[in-house]
Amino acid sequence: MDGTTDRPTYGGRLRRCPGGKTVTPESVDQDAAMLRHRLAQQIADEGKVRSPQWLEAIANVPRHEFVQEFFTRVEDGAGPTLWEPTDPQRSGVRRWLELAYTDSSHVTQLDGHLAPFDVTSGVNGTPTSSSTLPSLVVQMWEDLDARDGDRVLEVGTGTGYSTALGCYRLGDKNITSIEVDPSIAAKARQSLERVDYHPHLIAGDGLNGVPDGAPYDRIIATCALRSVPPAWIEQSRRGTVILVTLSGWLGGTGLAKLTVTGTGTAEGRFLPGYVSFMPARAHASQPATIPVLDDKAPLRSTAFGPDVISSYGAAQMIAQLAAPDAQYLQLIADDGAAEHLVVQDDSSYAHFAGEPGNWAVQQGGPVQLWDKVEEALAKWHASGQPNLDTFRIRVTPDRQVIDVAGWTGELPTRTIGGSSTG
């Protein structure tokens, strides 16, 4: 473990804060050291992290070196989300440092290409890369159960902050990290080198793993996937632990902990709690097409409405397993009225009317989508509505399934074509 705490900032460059005051690397480093120790103490006091070794990593790895610029969400109420660039020059050094050492995620890229450096004022966009909140990053490292000497593959380098925590605790020679976006990978490499960490970094598709470093003892992903890539299991050994967020197009999500049991096989379960990551780009949904609704289709009552999809939990995951290629759309009319649709690309749809507790559904297209969802949810209810962390996950070379108290749902293994965090 690398316990060095006095690391350079900004590569020795001087920064100017508003008002013309010169901020030296030394003064920034002193403030940052105080703030990250405060962050580590806060996370410890809240009971989010158990391990003294990982708390020590938070207290010693300079997060500000990995978030030298990021987007801050502007809470303006209505309309698309507005993101403002944040860095030492535009926000002031103290404000930037304070934000860097909050237990919060910071968006570092929008729409797959836009960085804070590229804009001068607030912009709209969809986050495609971020620095995940430190407590969650370290909770995942804890859940991975990595031991001294373990070889770890991290999928989704992002800013490199999570990578740096792994380097601090396990040694950089044991860490391999892969990032799908070449520009993000290059920035992460610079940040890691600036704080004197030199893991094996690769720019490429993490869904293919990194064969050069295999076999791995642990694999951790900081992006969400619809299913487990076979390459990860191929690059593991019996007993390898894989930690990955399994998510989908209806929003169901859970942090899965799997153990490789043999050639092409693994099994495990979802861990308690809520975890959500940006999807790997090959697993992200494509823009949905609104189908032509058949006004003559029968409208019938249903015990399960779209509120099942919009509330996190086991029911949402069940609905997603029953209709894995479907997406949920909420259309807002000019008068503020909401229209609820579940659609998939073969023009199948479920169109809802009513309100919670009194829903009706109208279906069209080649597949009766909501019939499948209702059947699965009815079985889940009949079995006592077990929590998500009781669901069992089984991976074989032929299929990947989730077993839920007598009902089995299958994970989709078809990909579309990686988001990054860290």
From TrEMBL:
One of its GO terms (molecular function) is protein-L-isoaspartate (D-aspartate) O-methyltransferase activity. GO terms for cellular component: cytoplasm. Keywords: Cytoplasm, Methyltransferase, S-adenosyl-L-methionine, Transferase. Its EC number is 2.1.1.77. The keyword Transferase applies. The keyword Plastid does not apply. It is an enzyme of class 2 (transferase). InterPro entries: Methyltr_grasp, PCMT, SAM-dependent_MTases_sf. Pfam families: PCMT. Its main location: cytoplasm. It is found in: Cytoplasm. Residues 1-25 are annotated as: Disordered. SUPFAM superfamilies: S-adenosyl-L-methionine-dependent methyltransferases. Belongs to the methyltransferase superfamily. L-isoaspartyl/D-aspartyl protein methyltransferase family. This is Protein-L-isoaspartate O-methyltransferase. It comes from Kribbella albertanoniae.
